[in-house]
Amino acid sequence: FASGPGPKVCASLTLTLANSSGVQTQSAMFLGLKATDLPSGDGGHLLVVPTSVIMLPLPPTGIGLRLCVPCDGAMCGLAVSLQNWQVDPGASQGVSFTQGLKLVLGS
């Protein structure tokens, strides 16, 4: 995962997600408000306590996801953690995990 400049309320944000396999694959984006470090049965670590999981098809070249941050001043300072899991036949257990990304919303 990568993001553009620091996310701000009332603005858009683009998240860039690379594809580790280089072929069309399935992925799951984990979103949450709390970080963790839990070993998975797939040889990786889940770094987010997910409140939402979004399944995404992932093109061979990756994808840019444009998100809009709501106009709510109460969200300033809110930390959001994200991580992506991808089906990757070249990975040791057939899946790969991103390093995770923490975004802190600003004004």
Characterize the main sheet: 5 strands, antiparallel
Structural class: mainly beta
Contiguous low-pLDDT stretches (5 residues minimum) are none
Oligomer designation: single chain
Please tally the helical runs, counting DSSP H or I stretches of 4 or more residues: 0
Q: How helix-rich are the residues, as a percent range? A: under 10%
Order of helices and strands: EEEEEEEEEE
Count the beta strands. 10
Rg for CA atoms: 14 Å
Mean pLDDT: 92
Give the DSSP E fraction (strand runs of 2 or more residues).
over 45%
Distance between the termini: 22 Å
Task: Give your account of this protein's structure.
- The protein has strands spanning 2-3, 12-17, 25-32, 34-39, 45-49, 52-58, 63-68, 79-87, 95-97, 101-104.
- With 107 residues, the protein is mainly β.
- It is built from no helices and 10 strands.
- The strands form 3 sheets. Strands 3, 6, 8, 9 and 10 form a 5-stranded antiparallel sheet that branches. Strands 1-2-7 form a 3-stranded antiparallel sheet, with no helix packed on it. Strands 4-5 form a two-stranded antiparallel ribbon.
